[in-house]
Every structure is written in C-alpha cells, then in structure tokens.
Amino acid sequence: MGTALIEHLPWACALLATLAALELLRRLRLARRRVLALSRDHNRVTLSLDLALSIGRMGSWQFERADSSLFWSDEVFAIHQRDPRRGQPGLEEAIAYYHPDDRLTVADAVQRALDHGEDYDFRARIITDSGEQREVMSRGTCRFDRDGTPIGMLGYIIDITAGSAGQG
After folding, report:
1. How many domains does the chain have?
2. Second label for 101, Cα 20 to 30 Å away, from 9, 29, 114, 138?
3. Residue 91 sits in which domain range?
4. Are 62 and 89 in contact (CB under 8 A)?
5. Is 93 in the same domain as 11?
6. How far apart are the C-alpha atoms of 79 and 156, rounded to whole Å?
7. Is residue 24 part of a domain?
C-alpha cells in the first residue's frame, strides 16, 4: 500500500501545484479588476477636478524637485494664454511670466518653500503670452520625503483679474 501512495505522489504534487496556480491566477484577475476600477475612479475624479477648476478660472500645478519638472493643468495654460503644444515650462520660465515688479517676491516664496518646506500664498501679476496683464493668486505647499526634506510642491493659481470670468 505504501508503494501505491508513492506512485501517485507526482500526480498529487502536480494537482496541488495546478490548484495553487489557479488560485493565484484568480487572485491576480481580482487584483487587476480592482486596479482598473481604481483607475476609472481616479480618471473620474481628475476629470471632475479639471472641470471645476476651469469653471472657477483656477488651475493646478506640480513641481518635482528630483528632475526639476513642472506640470501645469490645462487651465494654467489657459490663464497664461500659453499654447500647450509648446510644452510644459521650466520653473524659471514659469516665474518669468510674472510681472517684473513681482518676480522677486514669487522667486523668494518658491525658494523658501523648497529650502525650508514653507507653504506660500500670494497675489501677483502675470504677463500672458498675448501680452495681457492678469492678476492671480497662487498657493503652494510642499511634498516631503520620509526624512522631512521637501521633494516637490503642488498648488493652485487663480485668475482674479476683474472681469476675467469666461475668458481663456
């Protein structure tokens, strides 16, 4: 009888391995469905936020210190009247949109945020790509790594120019 069990051991191991593989496949499919659902939810939230921001003449931006990349939402491009086909501006180019009398204030706020993790909130003027002057309010906050070092910033810019609603 012991010999009979030994003869079936390879088949039993193969069956057990197959069942384990099928269970793993089931769990992977379930995880994939969850990831797809989360992705759809994220896309809906992002679309809703973009819509709300465009109605309020407000845009979002994000800066990553590691590669010095700046990302503007569509509405930030519209506020600056910058053609998105030109691509995302660098941080210095974005600061250069501010009125010459306001640039130092803006640059100092950004530098303090990156150096010390300070949030900022200011009103300033920008000069759009078409040469129009607009008044904006900007708020920024830092993102930190585990050690508390600022690794980036994110924030909003709001066009508060009188009579600017509906322009773009």
Report:
1. 2
2. 114
3. 58-159
4. no
5. no
6. 12
7. yes
Same domain, 112 and 128: yes
Same domain, residue pair 48 and 79 = no
Is residue 166, in this structure, part of any structural domain at all? no
* The token pair that represents 6 in the structure block: 């030994």
pLDDT at 13: 80
Do residues 77 and 53 lie in contact, with contact meaning Cβ atoms separated by under 8 Å? Answer: no
Joined together, the tokens standing for residue 46 give: 């992002």
Answer whether 71's CB lies under 8 Å from 61's CB.
yes
Distance of alpha carbon 131 from alpha carbon 80, whole angstroms: 10
**Could you tell me if 69 and 142 lie in one domain?**
yes
DSSP string, 82-111: --GGG-PPPHHHHHHTB-TTTHHHHHHHHH
User: What confidence tens digit (pLDDT) does each residue in 23-65 have?
Assistant: 888 888 888 888 888 777 777 766 666 666 555 688 999 999 9
Q: In what order do the strands lie in the sheet with 133-144?
A: 69-72, 58-64, 150-159, 133-144, 120-127
Distance between CA atoms of residues 92 and 82, nearest Å? 15
User: Sorting pLDDT into bands at 50, 70 and 90, what band is 166?
Assistant: very low
